[in-house]
Every structure is written in C-alpha cells, then in structure tokens.
C-alpha cells in the first residue's frame, strides 16, 4: 500500500454552528483573580483502580508558571498544564496526554492532545493540535494507524466566537478554583472541545460535600460534575472529588471501568493571609521627666565632654589654629563667613597643592564665583 502524504489526507472540515456561552459563564471566568490561581499551581498523582480493585494505571496533573513565545519574539507569562493517563482496559494499553499553555485570563493559546490505543495488530493514535494565531484558533486532528497518517481534519474559529471556552488544559485550573471556593456558578453554560474537537456546550454542577476515605483518614470532599454536550455524540460526563485546597482525591468518568483515586492524604495548601498591621498608640515622650532617660542623657553628656577634652589636650595646635582664625575673622569682618573660612583653611588641606601663606590679591580664588 502506497503511503499517502499529509496534503492528500488533510481536508478542511465544515464547522457546525458554534454555540455561545451564556453571560454567567463568561462573567465567572472574568472574575477569577490571579491570587486565587496562585494557590492552584501544583502537581498531583492518582492511580487507576479497576472494578475488581486492581491497580491498572496512573493519572498525573501538573501546573506551573512559564514563558511562552510562539514566534520567538514576544514572550508572555502564562501557565503550563500537563496531564497524563496511562493504563489498561481489558488488557489493552491506553494512554492519553495533554499539554497546554493557558494565559492568566484562562484562555488557551496552544494545546497538544494525544490518545493512543495499542491493539496488538492495529495500534491507533489520535493527535490534536490547537493553536491561537492573532484572532483565529486553528484546530488540527490527525488519526494515525500503524504509524501512518490516514486522516487529517483541519478547521478554525474566530476568537470572538470563543468567549467562555474552557479547554481541557484550562479545565484543571477552573475546577481547582471552584473547589477552593466550594461553589459552582449556577445555570452557567461554558464552551468546550467535544469528541470530534468541535466547540460544544459544557456545564458544571455541584453534587455537594461528601465523605471519602483517603488512606487511613476520612476527609470531606467537594464534588463537581462536568458534562460536555457533544452535538452528534453521547455526552461525556465526569465526576471530580476535591479536597478543600483543590487537590483531586477521586475522578470518575461515567461509563469507564476504572476510577482514579489518591492513595494517601497530601499536604494541604494553606492560604497565606497577611496579619493585620499592628497599630501602636503614640505616647508623648518627656525625657526630662523620665528618670531613666534623663540619667542616660547625663551619662552620655559627661562621656562626650570627657572625650572632647581629651582630644583638645592631645592636640594643643588646635587652640592656636582656632585663635588665629578667629582673630583674622574679627579684623576682616567678611560678609561671607563660609567662603572666608574655606580660603583661610585651604592651605592646610592635604588634597591641594602647597601654596604661599599670603596669596597675591589679584590671584582668583577657587571658592568665589567669577562671571
């Protein structure tokens, strides 16, 4: 069989009418603050448990801050979200991985999704690439069988049609925020990617607080149900169980034989709230009336007087120098005392070249301004 090229298998797929998110969903996303998201940046790991109680796989999620530059020109600070699921269903290895770049406003700028089912004789892999370019969101879906691309669908959306879109990458952050608030917006209709990667409605609903045994402990968990209403497919439904800080304790996909659970209680993330700034009452200080402060003042005064007297005794030339300056000052009586003092003491400076003690009257002084 001759291998087909990408151009031969790719085709532009007509896009169904794009639904619209309602006002409640758009408003909910716009009101999520950065200080809420910063507590949702962490990694976690769960295991897949079959109906018979056997461990059949793993499920990991990580969120971190990074820089993103699609054209190596303008960098943008955003969130890198990775999720990976590995396991077996009826003895068949299955893997799913998601890598997405999400902005501070929880908009997806790029996302890579890979789903693989490794049949012994007929492995199948589906790859989906979503990327934002200016005012367009481009989607490419590729089906690979036996390492050969057999089908490629490409389509695009205008960004104006995507208000309220929550991709699989952004979904982890959005649900962690909901879990920390322990509240889900009522009657909110979001947008999501369906099975065929077309945009379709998506809803979240609260199933309340339940008890769950985590390791040897029993914890209260907040349960959120997410449903993606694909147009021509059966709705996809998940139930997510969250601890108070947003850690996922359990995930159930309706119709799946495996359940994702954590094996032990994680260290919960506390919200760091700064303590209120203390306010001290201002007390007037009368140090002359305070016995202790007045005693310290007298001690320091005597210490300085003794130090100054010792210095003067060790330098007898100081008295002679000051006497000469004061005598000349009283004879001349200059208007500018500071400049007169600078000119008088200039010859004693070690940083200036030596000069005659009696300077010529017509020689300009560096301490006086001349026009």
UniProtKB/TrEMBL annotation:
UniProt keyword terms in alphabetical order: Cell membrane, Cilium biogenesis/degradation, Cytoplasm, Cytoskeleton, Membrane, Nucleus
This protein's record includes keyword Cytoplasm: yes
Record localization: Cell membrane; Cytoplasm, Cytoskeleton; Nucleus
Ciliogenesis-associated TTC17-interacting protein N-terminal domain residues: 25-257
UniProt-listed GO biological process terms: actin filament polymerization; cilium organization
Region forming the signal peptide: none
Keyword Cell membrane: yes
Pfam families in the record: CATIP_N (PF21772)
GO terms under cellular component: actin cytoskeleton; cytoplasm; nucleus; plasma membrane
PANTHER family: CILIOGENESIS-ASSOCIATED TTC17-INTERACTING PROTEIN, RIIA DOMAIN-CONTAINING PROTEIN 1
Biological function: Plays a role in primary ciliogenesis by modulating actin polymerization.
Annotated family: Belongs to the CATIP family.
This protein's name: Ciliogenesis-associated TTC17-interacting protein
Organism of origin: Podarcis muralis
Species classification: Eukaryota, Metazoa, Chordata, Craniata, Vertebrata
């Amino acid at each position: 069989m001759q291998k087909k090229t990408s151009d031969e298998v790719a085709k532009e797929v007509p896009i169904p009418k794009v639904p619209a998110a309602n006002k409640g969903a758009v408003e909910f996303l716009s009101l999520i603050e950065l200080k809420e998201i910063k507590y949702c940046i962490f990694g976690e790991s769960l295991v897949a448990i079959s109906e018979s109680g056997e461990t059949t796989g793993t499920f990991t999620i990580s969120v971190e801050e990074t820089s993103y530059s699609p054209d190596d020109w303008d960098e943008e600070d955003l969130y890198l979200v990775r999720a990976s699921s590995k396991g077996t269903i009826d003895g068949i290895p299955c893997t799913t991985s998601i890598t997405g770049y999400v902005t501070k406003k929880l908009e997806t700028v790029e996302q890579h999704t890979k789903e693989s089912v490794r049949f012994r004789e007929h492995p199948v892999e589906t790859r989906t690439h979503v990327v934002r370019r200016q005012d367009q969101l481009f989607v490419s879906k590729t089906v690979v069988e036996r390492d050969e691309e057999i089908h490629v669908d490409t389509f695009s959306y205008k960004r104006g049609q995507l208000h309220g879109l929550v991709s699989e990458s952004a979904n982890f952050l959005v649900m962690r925020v909901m879990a920390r608030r322990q509240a889900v917006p009522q009657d909110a209709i979001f947008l999501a990617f369906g099975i065929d990667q077309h945009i379709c409605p998506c809803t979240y609903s609260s199933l309340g607080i339940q008890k769950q045994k985590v390791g040897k402990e029993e914890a209260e968990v907040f349960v959120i149900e997410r449903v993606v209403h694909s147009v021509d497919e059966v709705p996809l439904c998940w139930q997510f169980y969250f601890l108070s800080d947003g850690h996922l304790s359990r995930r159930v996909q309706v119709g799946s034989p495996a359940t994702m659970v954590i094996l032990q209680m994680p260290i919960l993330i506390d919200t760091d709230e700064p303590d209120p700034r203390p306010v001290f009452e201002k007390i007037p200080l009368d140090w002359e009336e305070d016995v202790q402060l007045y005693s310290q003042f007298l001690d320091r005064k005597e210490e300085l007087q003794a130090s100054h007297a010792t210095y003067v005794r060790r330098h007898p030339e100081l008295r002679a120098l000051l006497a000469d300056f004061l005598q000349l000052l009283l004879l001349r009586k200059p208007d500018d005392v500071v400049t007169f003092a600078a000119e008088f003491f200039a010859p004693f400076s070690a940083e200036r070249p030596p000069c005659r003690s009696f300077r010529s009257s017509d020689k300009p002084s560096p301490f006086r301004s001349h026009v």
